[in-house]
Fold this protein.
Amino acid sequence: MVDFSTAANHLVILMPVYNDWHALSLLLPRLDRELSINRINARVFLVDDGSTVVPADNFFSFEYASIQSIDVLSLRRNLGHQRAIAAGLSYIEANVNCHYLIIMDGDGEDEPSDIPLLLQKCITSGDKIVFAARTRRSEGWLFKFLYQLYRVVHFLLTGVRVRVGNFSVVPITALRRLVAVSELWNHYAAAVHKAKLPVDFVSTARGCRLAGPSQMNIVGLVVHGLSAMAVFGDRIGVRLLLLVFLGMLLDLGALLSVIAVRLFTSWAIPGWATYATGILLVILVQMSLVVLVFIFVILASRDRVNFIPARDYVHLAGAVQRVYGQVA
């Protein structure tokens, strides 16, 4: 068993928050209790993603044993869950001294009791990023069905299996590389895979929300899924390009077959063959145009200036306020 009192001496827990102050108020005592049991001291870093609800005046008046401080980074506007995480990671990498960083949600669905397991795996696995791989989800049947459907579509388009969310431990060595990955601005877990950073997994069960309705509606979930796939846009494009090219070959083969039968055999050609030939020729031309447009789009995107979180987050980050603990 790892001695967390020395191995995780500089631990920061990052939580993006959007109006979920009630759930967070229930989570923090549970988090502090779990840290105390395992002799872990940590600093909590909240990213306020443009919340429209202000926490109560006595929200941070609770006394904690193992949570040393709580800082709040207020973003200038609502950016969304993934970009709030990217901004928080970039700020911590540039301004906070830490050895390990834990990313978790503030609504209770990421269980504090899993933190020692993730941290131990990270410390003993050679400083890999360690994700919580979900073995059981707490949502309803409709969400589970749509999620499984999304996983299938994601795998067919990208070749990457969806196994994890945001709950993870990031060592400082990986954090320095991660904040320079432009794809981090779209999706944290997908950016880790795209950057080919070393990862490991710990099987965990997803918890339940502690209070209030989820801030993520069906539109937000779809955007979240598309953002993950957008990270692999080049891979998806090549797969679709190969599919279109295969369709072109089949179309061309059918077209040549009709012409060969007409010119080199005495077989009777029905009247519809002329119309079929014309339709096949139109389809072939359209597929060729699709291929050309896609190639030009890919070439044009190579010259585009990307958003680098480590460089550009400052334009969206506001003030940082210490709301608990000794003022630095």
